């Protein structure tokens, strides 16, 4: 199943900078691992915001939740999930 996921990152202003850099590095490694595995199909920055729009290709809601909830930055993200269905006019 395909899902459009929007992640808005909200880092507390008083977070220790070393911890923040570590979390960002861990998030980057995990995001790239999931992209290589094919489950994180697209990752786009939302211009002008610390946010992304992503397309995930996973088996079901449970797999998506398992992935999202174990992302290193998960505690600091507002996440919106939109399940996608095939459009009848799509040609591919
Ligand atoms: O920067 C972000 O949008 C948050 C998160 C998603 C992938 C990644 O590397 O960091």
Automatic annotation (TrEMBL):
Q: How does it assemble?
A: Homodecamer.
Catalytic activity, EC: 5.3.3.4
Start and end of every Muconolactone isomerase domain? 1-89
> In the record, what lineage is assigned to the organism producing the protein?
Bacteria, Pseudomonadati, Pseudomonadota, Alphaproteobacteria, Acetobacterales
**GO molecular function terms noted in the UniProt entry:** muconolactone delta-isomerase activity
The chemistry this enzyme catalyses reads: (S)-muconolactone = (4,5-dihydro-5-oxofuran-2-yl)-acetate
Name of the protein this chain belongs to: Muconolactone Delta-isomerase
Which keywords appear in this protein's UniProt record, sorted alphabetically?
Aromatic hydrocarbons catabolism, Isomerase
Q: Which organism is it from?
A: Falsiroseomonas selenitidurans
Which Pfam families does the record cross-reference, listed alphabetically?
MIase
Its pathway is:
Aromatic compound metabolism; beta-ketoadipate pathway; 5-oxo-4,5-dihydro-2-furylacetate from catechol: step 3/3
> Organism's domain of life?
Bacteria
Report the family membership: Belongs to the muconolactone Delta-isomerase family.
Report the gene name. catC
Top EC group = isomerase
